[in-house]
Every structure is written in C-alpha cells, then in structure tokens.
Amino acid sequence: MVVTDLEVVTITPTSAVIAWTTRQSRFGVGVPQPVTAGTELALGPVEGSLRVVHDDPIPRAFHMVEVTGLEPGRRYRFRASSNGQQAHAALRPTRRIGSCEQVNEFTTLTPPPGDYLTTIALTNDIHIGEKRQGIVLGSLPTSVRPHPDQVDYPQIMLASSLGDLTTRRGHPLVVVNGDITYANQPHEVALARQLLDGYGKQNDGWVVTRGNHDHPRRDDDPFGDVFVGYQRNQTILDPSGLRILAVDSTRGSGGGWIVPDQYDQIMSELASDPHRPTLAVTHHPVTNEAAWTSISGPQFMLRAPDRLRLQLIESQAPGVFLHVAGHTHRMRRDRADLPWAHTQYLENAACAAYPGGFSLLHLYTGGYLLNFWRPSDPDALDWLYRSRWQVMGLGAHLMLGRTEDRNHVVEFDLSGLMPARREAPAELQA
Ligand SMILES: [Fe+2]
Ligand SMILES: [Fe+2]
Fold first, then answer.
1. Measured between alpha carbons, how far is 412 from 242 in angstroms, rounded to an integer?
2. Does 132 lie in the same domain as 63?
3. Tens digit of pLDDT for each residue in 267-280?
4. Residue where a domain terminates, one of 51, 75, 107
5. Which of 352, 359, 306 is nearest to 333 (CA)?
6. 25 and 120, same structural domain?
7. Which of 136, 320, 393, 394 could bridge across to 278 with cysteines, CB 3.0–4.6 Å?
8. In this structure, which ligand is nearest to the CA of 182?
9. Nearest ligand, CA of residue 352?
10. Which ligand is nearest to the Cα of residue 125, counting in written order?
11. How far apart are CA 214 and CA 185, in angstroms?
C-alpha cells in the first residue's frame, strides 16, 4: 500500500482540511487500484506534542479530515497516516521546499482587519453531460472514464457542493462561473437549472456566467433560453452592497472575446459608481500570466487585446478589488499585467474535476479571506480519487495550486459595504 498525495487542502482561521489517498503502486498510465484503509490524524501546536484528533477505522481510499477548534495565526504540526503508515507528498505544488506537506506543518490564517460583512461562494467548470474527464487527445489515454456508478459525476460534484454550502457553509450566494454544461444541450441546461433552483433563486441565491462549453449554436441556445443570453453582462447587488459584475467572455468552443457593446456596458456600469466594492467575474482568465502558463496555450484564452483592456478598465475603477475566472480548472493567483493595478486576479479550480470543489470569499471591512473547499460527500471523494489521474496523471500536479493559492487573506478597503446580516461562518470565529 502507498500512502500518498498528501494535501493541506484548506486552512481557515480556526480549522484545516488534510487529505491523502491509499492505493497500489501505479503501473502504466491508468488509474491505480485503490486500497482501502483507516484514517488517522495527529495534530498539535508546533512547539507542543501531537495528539490524535481523528481515528476512523472505516476503510476508504480517499481520506479527508477537517480539524476544527484551532487558533488563528498559530502554527501547527501534524501526522497523517493510514494503518500506521505516514502519508507523503507527491503532487508537484506539495513537493516544494518548505511546503506544508513537506514539513507537515501549517499556520492558520489571521482574518483581515475590521468587521465580517458577508460571504460569496465561487464555483465553475461543472460540465454537466460530460462522459470522460480531462483533456481528450484522440486515442491517447489522457482522460478518465468514470466508474459505472459515477457516470453522473458532474451532478454528483455540483449537488454535493451545493449540499455542503447549504448545510455546512451558511448558504451563501454562489457565483457559477461558466462551463456549466458540456455542450449546451437542452437536457444538460435543464438539469443544471433544476439543481440551482433547489439552492435558491437566480440572481439572489446564485448567479451564472457562460463558459466556452455553453456556447450557442447557429440556431439554438438552450443556455440562453434558461439562464442568460449570449454576450449579456449582468450586475448583481448583494445585500452587503457588494456589486458583482458578471461578464460573458465566450466566443466559441475554446478562446474568448468581449464585444464592443459589452465594453460600453462595463464602462458605464463601473463609471456610475467607481468606488463601490466590486467582484468581477468572467469564465476566461484575463491576465497574461494565466494565458501563458496554462497547458492549453494562449489561443484557448480570452484574446490578448481584451485581456489588457479589461484590466485597464478595472484599474480605473478603485472598487474592483478582485477578478475571478475559471476555465483553466486550476487554482492560481495571477500577477496583474499593469504595475499600478489594485485588483487581485484569481483562477478558481473546477468543481467537477480534481481538485474539485468551490471557494468561499469572506468579506470584511478591511479585506477578504478566501478558502477552497472540497465537498464532504464520500461519493464526491471517490470520484476525485479517479479524477486525480486525468491527463495521464499529470493534471493534478497542474491543477491543485499551492496552499496559498487556495487559502489567503488580502487587505483592501471594503468599508463601503455593510454587514449583510449573516452570521459569520463558524471557522471565522475564534
Ligand atoms: Fe471547463
Ligand atoms: Fe472553459
């Protein structure tokens, strides 16, 4: 048995999620055979001794433990193991010198200054209707076929994410940022709509943008009929006063563009209230760093002039503090191209593909705190065991991101917002 793929997935001010897998050694390029074993985690302050905080004999191959009751801004060490065998780091971002998984330590986050205001959930890349997951390169075994009981893995991942958001994460507004369907087929769109309607009302409980997989055909557009028309921008005001500017960045089946009429709308919306704290979302990332570091290459991205123009417009609106994208299926903080930019740029990982889940963006008067979460449903985790092996096993190394891509705090003046009368999530309360 190999006890491997150790990840410190989530670090909040008072909790952490640690995951690993147990399996046989891998031969060839397929999915290695899972080996089920128990789940044990010992943890303690870095200067103290370890104490067993989780010991679950239920045999499983994908192990995930959420430890609560920690102190903000404190360093902890841990030992994750299965049947006494310690879990080791294997994925590229976890093998960097000094990473949490190398040193078996992490530091809980310190919330930004000021009062808690509200929380927004971010998810993308669900691909309802998809049958194989990962990049398909002809007959090469690059993509992963689900088990017969996992053929609905996009629904499993979306439903379990929405389930956790409802029951465990305070039921926040969810931004579903594109590639909601695999091919914009009526039954795919209907299923997505049904799942989201179970969560809340459009533009109140959830907001959707279109991704390249949801692109319209010459004479039909089920996505547009059910969700929002092609190349239509949306502005949503959260009860906190937060403005969400959701822009359709799609063009065809891969790359993206923004059309002149959309620019007019974006500029007039931002100019009408430039200081209002604003979250901008497009399915395609808008930085050159994102475009040039993605394995799919820059032709799969928003056109270069549009990337720059959007960043320029955002740099002229002091309230646009964050621009979130999906599309690359990876978790990554990107550098802005304009040296004077005040906006942060983030690529959010896919919901339905490894690492699999959603992010929570917690707003405070003095900034924001962001955490990536996996759904807790065992069926979702069983699927992620397989999904990890997409692109001949390479995908996970590229998609997971660093701990600080998935969990970080940014200070920014959001005092123009007011508390949305939501209770602060438990993990933010020391
Ligand atoms: Fe996608
Ligand atoms: Fe996409």
1. 14
2. no
3. 999 999 999 999 99
4. 107
5. 359
6. no
7. 320
8. 1
9. 1
10. 1
11. 8
Ligand nearest to the CA of 215: 2
- Report H helices in 129-220: 153-167, 186-197
Are 82 and 181 found together in one domain?
Answer: no
Q: Which domain CATH number covers 6?
A: 2.60.40.10
Give the closest ligand to the alpha carbon of residue 301: 2
Taking the C-alpha atoms of residue 62 and residue 154, their distance in angstroms, rounded to an integer, is 18
pLDDT at 364 over 90: yes
pLDDT for the residue 139: 66
Q: Residue 410 is part of a domain; what is its CATH number? A: 3.60.21.10
Radius of gyration from C-alpha coordinates of the chain: 21
Q: Are residues 69 and 135 in the same domain?
A: no
Q: Residue 56, SS3?
A: strand
Distance 213 CA to ligand 1 centre (A): 7
Q: Rounded mean pLDDT of the chain?
A: 96
Q: How far, in Å, from the CA of 396 to the mean position of ligand 2?
A: 17
Contacts of 171 (CB under 8 A, 6+ apart): 165, 199, 200, 205
Read off the tokens for 218.
Answer: 């010459």
Higher pLDDT, 316 or 133: 316
CA–centroid distance, 222 to ligand 2, in Å, is: 17
Per-residue pLDDT tens over the stretch 313-324: 999 999 999 999
Torsion, Cα 272 114 279 172, to 10 degrees, reads: -120
Let me know: does 40 contact 82? Beta carbons within 8 Å. yes
Task: Determine the distance separating the centroid of ligand 1 and the alpha carbon of 196, expressed in angstroms.
Answer: 18
Which has the minimum average pLDDT: 76-80, 146-150, 396-400?
146-150
User: Residue 137: its pLDDT value, please?
Assistant: 67
Give the range of the structural domain holding residue 373, as residue numbers without chain letter: 116-428
Q: Which residues of 47-83 are buried (b: 16+ CB within 10 A; e: fewer)?
A: eeeeeebeeeeeebbbbbbbbeebebeeebbbebbbe
Total tally of structural domains belonging to the chain: 2
What phi and psi, each to the nearest 5 degrees, are found at residue 5?
A: 55, 40
